[in-house]
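Lab meeting, item 3. Inverse folding demo.
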């Protein structure tokens, strides 16, 4: 019988499961006999969303060396999700704009403080992404102007995003992966816009 210490933590994350991208809220990290990895013991990482059940689970089984390498790689590649509102402002969003500008500033300061190390720190600044929060804004716009949902979406995009298309979680995730690659070693303190031209205006 094995005994091992289990660490549990809350997350704000998303992951790709067999059903596509999903929000993940909890993680469990422990050392045990792996189910699939060909070793006697492995570090097990389960990331999931309990509200959505087993379909919203991403699992990893790692040997000790791989686990240490993964932890070091994560520490070398610090990143934040800011917003177009970290670069420009909009009315009626004082607190949000202030917070996102602060996050971009923090990113730049950390990048300078770690510039002579292997650590990089950058911010991704999305424009409109079709999240549940944005969907509520579309619903409210449709109701207040008596518009079909498709027309309300188009109206919302037209106000800020010249591409007239939402940025997607997959696009943002791909940029995050790139920022973790050796090709991004000298990208430091950058605020990368994914906003369909919003901040180019």
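The presenter then showed the designed sequence:
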């Amino acid at each position: 019988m094995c005994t091992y210490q289990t660490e549990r933590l809350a997350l704000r994350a998303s992951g790709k499961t067999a059903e596509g991208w999903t929000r993940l809220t909890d993680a469990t990290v422990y050392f045990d006999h792996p189910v699939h990895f060909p070793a006697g013991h492995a570090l097990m990482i389960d990331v999931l969303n309990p509200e959505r059940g087993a379909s919203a689970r991403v699992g990893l089984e790692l040997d000790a060396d791989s686990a240490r390498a993964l932890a070091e790689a994560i520490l070398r590649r610090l990143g934040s999700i800011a917003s177009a509102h970290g670069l420009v402002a909009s009315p009626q969003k004082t607190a949000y704009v202030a917070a996102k500008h602060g996050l971009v500033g923090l990113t730049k300061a950390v990048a300078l403080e770690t510039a002579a190390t292997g650590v990089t720190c950058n911010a991704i600044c999305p424009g409109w992404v079709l999240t549940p929060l944005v969907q509520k804004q579309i619903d409210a716009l449709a109701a207040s102007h008596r518009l079909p949902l498709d027309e309300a979406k188009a109206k919302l995009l037209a106000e800020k995003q010249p591409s007239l298309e939402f940025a997607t979680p997959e696009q943002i995730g791909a940029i995050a992966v790139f920022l973790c690659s050796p090709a991004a070693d000298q990208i430091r303190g950058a605020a990368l816009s994914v906003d369909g031209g919003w901040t180019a205006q």
